[in-house]
Amino acid sequence: MSNLDQIAKLSGFSKATVSRVLNHSPHVSQTTRDTIMKIMEELDYVPNGNAISLSKGQTEQIGMVTEGINEVMLPFLNSFVETASQYGYQTIIYTSGGDPAKELQAFEDMRRKRVDALVISTCVNDLELLSSYGKYGPIVSWQRMERPEIQSVAMNQYEGYMLGLEHVIKQGYRRIANAFGRPTSMNTSGRMQAYQDIVRKYNLPVQPDWSPTGIYSIRQGEQLVRELLLNPGEHPNVILCANDLVAAGVLNEARRMGVKVPEELAVVGFDNTELAHTLGITSIYNPIAAQAQNAFQLILGRLKGTEAAQQQLEFQLVKRATT
Amino acid sequence: MSNLDQIAKLSGFSKATVSRVLNHSPHVSQTTRDTIMKIMEELDYVPNGNAISLSKGQTEQIGMVTEGINEVMLPFLNSFVETASQYGYQTIIYTSGGDPAKELQAFEDMRRKRVDALVISTCVNDLELLSSYGKYGPIVSWQRMERPEIQSVAMNQYEGYMLGLEHVIKQGYRRIANAFGRPTSMNTSGRMQAYQDIVRKYNLPVQPDWSPTGIYSIRQGEQLVRELLLNPGEHPNVILCANDLVAAGVLNEARRMGVKVPEELAVVGFDNTELAHTLGITSIYNPIAAQAQNAFQLILGRLKGTEAAQQQLEFQLVKRATT
């Protein structure tokens, strides 16, 4: 016997009436509604979640897609959660741990109307596959993606990185090392391009070990500065870092090695976090929180069919004691 | 016309046969199944998500409940996500932004079998209400909660904080200030109790402004050290901090003020993060990642009806240059 049958039998009403109560139809008296609701409660009857959401048309939940969560993405995540919340939307974060099948759950959930829209922080699936879900709802990405179905709020990292590069050149540094982040990301490509352009422009010295990728953490920053400064051969006199965590590791380890900062080694972070502030590290202000606000506005515009209120965003150099 | 009707009509099969395909019944030939699946795809028919999950009995998704995400909870979150992933479970994080109604969505989702279990990082709803969802699936909490329906992996913060207190006493410090965290949490109560006990045991001086609560960030640590050291009257000579971020702020601001650390002011962090390591801050190792593993094992044990493989966990003092 189905739940509906059972509720109908116990309440003494027809299945059609029970169904009307479930569907919030106005054509049911309050007494009838109360009786049926009471029996549903006694039976611990769980109305189908999708049915409820579909009747309202929206779930008011937005899925965020990410492999994992680290310090660098926290400002994006928190700003998105807060902005969405101001508009009555809840953010649900789908972690994939890098597993394409788990990541796809979020997209399947949008297809099944469990979430209204998706914002991608990082993703691992083939972009063509992910793009195909664009017909089920808005998809916005924090990363740069050249897919028409996925709008992006990414900023041109070339420009931000160039600010740091031109700054250290102006301060007289020429032996530039780079601690780059994720080797496959378009953000890293943009930064690499800026470095190549500045090398050409100023005819700077280049060493093969001066531009490693995959450097994200304090410990990796510490290790990098040991490798760079203990190597035989020429040493860099400035390190531009993928983020402020790496810069903190570089700065502290360099000091422990007795290296004078910024006289012998300059350090530049990225993102201009509280850590860069408290440690006095020169950094590039990256309007991450504002990007998240833009991402939400793009989604909201699509969901409501209105114009998205986008902010114009710019990187800024914040000079401190390490350059 | 319902989707089922439409698929039946277009495929030439009965509704019963279409239904059998949807329910993965073995009593359908492969040819029939293929024909019907093809039509479902053409119609872009979305099978009901709950129905699919219910047929397997589990969604293999676990919900994490939290107000928001900060650096301090990242090790818990990431360790949980990773452990769950090793066992084939996906973690979905429900952010509430402190809104009880949004938080309740996660619990409603467990009731509707959209997630198999819940792990609470922080929560804002009345615990009696949340406990009532215990009948729908396992609920485990990172925080201490004295509810039989919610298992907890919390450690006794009294013991961890006492390690720090006894250490600074042994180093000769007596004027102890505390930067406490969330005033309403049982974790903070445990730490406050340890402080009160040590004050009594060693007959230590106490000032009303030496134990503020709600101190979580680098900036708040910087501000606190200015307030404490610029006040007229007696100054503390050691600050125990709610976490390593606060300790980093205290340490750097004290140095900027020309205060000698640890001679004039000692600093103790909490959690023993990479930040404490790179800045040389004495800290209390807090086995947060292992707590998350325990939380997952408790859930898995409940879901599979097996014994949970719990680890025995202990705090440890890690002495560095700030004490």
TrEMBL record, chains A, B:
Record's keyword annotation contains Transcription regulation: yes
Recorded superkingdom: Bacteria
A GO molecular function held by the record: DNA binding
Residue ranges of every copy of the HTH lacI-type domain listed in the record: 2-56
SMART domains per record: HTH_LACI
Keywords assigned: DNA-binding, Transcription, Transcription regulation
InterPro entries the UniProt entry points to: HTH_LacI, LacI/GalR-like_sensor, Lambda_DNA-bd_dom_sf, Peripla_BP_I
Protein name: LacI family DNA-binding transcriptional regulator
